[in-house]
Write a sequence for this structure.
């Protein structure tokens, strides 16, 4: 998208569209969902032939200067967790685009 060719009015209009596309901000989650399979180790269990029992889900979140933290996510919550994680990514992308528009308006000395 070549922003330089858009009028200030068009930029503001597009900004409104971006704001409307924001996911519900209560429904966001940062991190990533990790799937794990584990063999139980019981003799004769057929899980030994495959990757193990699972999937079990974990939410992995990183913090600056720390090792990532892992939280177990029950199966029944995994779908919603995945949705919230996607919402967070979507929110970040939209905020970035909104910021770029505002930066362009500021650069042109246009009304924000
Ligand atoms: Zn097993």
């Amino acid at each position: 998208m070549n922003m330089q060719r858009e009028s200030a009015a068009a930029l503001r209009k597009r900004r409104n569209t971006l704001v409307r596309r924001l996911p519900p901000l209560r429904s966001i989650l940062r991190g990533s969902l990790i799937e794990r399979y584990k063999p139980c180790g019981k003799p004769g269990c057929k899980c030994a032939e495959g990757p193990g029992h699972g999937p079990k889900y974990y939410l992995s979140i990183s913090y600056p200067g720390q090792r990532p933290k892992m939280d177990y996510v029950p199966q029944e919550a995994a779908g919603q967790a995945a949705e919230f994680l996607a919402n967070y990514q979507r929110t970040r992308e939209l905020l970035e685009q909104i910021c770029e528009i505002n930066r362009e308006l500021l650069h042109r000395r246009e009304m924000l």
Notes: Residues 3-107 form one domain. The chain has one domain: 3-107.
